[in-house]
Amino acid sequence: MATVITNNADFLFLYEASQCNPNGDPDQENKPRMDYDTDINLVTDTRLKRYIRDYLKMTGQDVFVDMEGENKVSPERKLEAVIKRVLENDDTLGEMFTENPSLGEALAKVVEAEKTSDKIFKKLQEKVNRPLSIYLLAQLVKQKFVDIRMFGSAFAVEGFTKAYTGAIQINWGYSLHKVQLMESNSIVTIMNDDNSTFGKDYRIHYSLLAFNGTINKFAAQSTGLTPGDVNTFRDAIWNSVPSMPTRSKLNQYPKLYVEITYNDGYFNGHFGDLRNYVSAVPANELEEKQIRRFSDLRLDLTALQSLLKEQTGKGKPIQSAFIKTATGITLSSN
Fold first, then answer.
1. 91 and 45, same structural domain?
2. Which of 157, 166, 158, 133 lies closest to 79, judged by CA?
3. pTM for the model
4. Is residue 121 scored above 60 in pLDDT?
5. Same domain, 194 and 311
6. Which structural domain, as residue segments, surrounds residue 312?
């Protein structure tokens, strides 16, 4: 079994959105989600996680928060379907009980007595088999579903009731500047679950969005998040946003990802929200309402660069920094 992460980390992620709808608000006719008091564009953590899950699935990773076949199902039905598939696969079951052979023997007795996956699943839901069912659920999380190892999940199936706090947590994102909505009289079909309605095609001119997040070693003990999973997350958060463009989500591209890993004894949020170390103001004497592209902004990373330079090393909070930048952005770890 791969070892879980042993250090806490915080991260900052910036991406741009141009002439699109980064995150529609169903309570506002699917307009881009906004703080109208400040004209700041907002994107929920759920929207970013959906990008990541879709990318993980596209690249061959198993994800739990997904359809079952071609159908949308509840988490309860999804879990039931997954467990029944595992129960029908002797090789998978063998791998899951290497850490606890005695529970593997207990399951073998249930399988032998009940025969079919439906009957075995019902037997596992009995109170007497709760240690077995919870162990099986934990192994599913650690070996099968990278999205739960990252973001956690709550299960409410009889016999399998348990909540996993995600080792990776993400705040809502917000634009680093005021954002203007594009005026449009176009009428489009808006899909909401299994229904469709007609509405206007609302978009923003340009938004440079910033997210703050954490990677927590204590939550990782429960979900089993490994260093390999962290590498997978880095790849996914960078590539997921532009990887499957739709009509309303086209023209969104990553600009900056910075992840600081702490030395032992330091915890998440040691430096607060990392977005406080970056700023973006209009360039070329433009007003904020005139911003239409990245070159219309002056992105200031001075405070972040100073933080990395002054706080990294032995006896200091930061052990190391992972940095990925788009063309035109310069930031170093020292």
1. no
2. 157
3. 0.91
4. yes
5. yes
6. 9-61+168-325
